[in-house]
Amino acid sequence: MRFSVNRKRFKDLSEQQVLALAISSEEDDARIYRGYAEILRAEFPKSAAIFEGMAAEEDQHRQRLIDLHQERFGSTIPLIRREHVSGYYARRPVWLIENLGLDRIRAEATAMEQDAERFYLAAAARTSDAQTRKLLGDLAAAEAGHQTTAEDLTATHLDHDSAAEEDSRAHRQFVLTWVQPGLAGLMDGSVSTLAPIFAVAFATQDTWTTFLVGLAASVGAGISMGFTEAASDDGQLSGRGSPVKRGLAAGVMTTLGGLGHALPYLIPDFWTATIIAFAVVFIELWAIAWIQNKYMDTPFFRAAFQVVLGGALVFAAGVLIGSG
Predict the structure, then answer these.
(1) For residue range 176-221, what is the model confidence (pLDDT) as tens digits?
(2) Could you give the count of Cα atoms lying within 13 Å of 79 in the half-sphere of its Cβ?
(3) Residue-range domains of the chain with CATH
(4) pLDDT at residue 147 above 80?
(5) What local confidence, expressed as pLDDT, does residue 149 receive?
(6) Rg, the chain, Cα only
């Protein structure tokens, strides 16, 4: 509550304060764009050049705003930033976006300009002062101009072939860092836990005991798979990306793969729980086949045959052992 009270409403700002806010916002956006450029420079140099150009445009607009402030109000610019103003659009931290890939960074940059333009237009519509309205309208036009500049810079630095190449590289990195270890984890968790879970289920016909065994097997396999993936390759030479990300993907998906057919045994009735667990296993195996087809370019029916056959053999082994 104290934070809200300490923030000033936009409509209560003076023209000088609005101008100071615009100056600080342009400065922040330039830094964000340069941060994006630095993140992308090694793998996507042409996209990095686009963001460097956009940062230079922000610098030019900031300088024009400073010149206008000096002309109207003098050289002392009030210290006011977006976090000081209630309802002012926020910017996501660079570190929150950088791990989400090239497309996400591009989309965030577009949203930044659109947010600023909409805000200035809405602010201009709410004021009756002619000078303030003109100022806010000019700021909105400047933000719209930034979007045009981004399109021009894209055309200059990123032709169709270059864009396709960078998109392909980003997709490949996503597959190597997230999809591949996640898929390996899902396969391991779904298939390797079938035998112990259904062996215990048919040996004891005790749903609670079966659930506890399934929970232990799933969590244990997830921890083991996560650490194994993270320790197996630091990603420096293979280009597979951060070992922490890969380990997290593998560990989480392994645990989920096992829990899928362990959770039905929270149902007290043995046969009801078992039939639901059968259905979940079927869904898990077909999900694995779909992921292989979509991201690994494996023909769907071949992937389905391999996964379903392997899962069926492990499942049958668990049932036979438990029934014996």
Answers:
(1) 777 888 888 888 888 888 888 988 988 899 999 999 999 999 999 9
(2) 0
(3) 2-158 (1.20.1260.10), 165-323 (no CATH)
(4) no
(5) 54
(6) 28
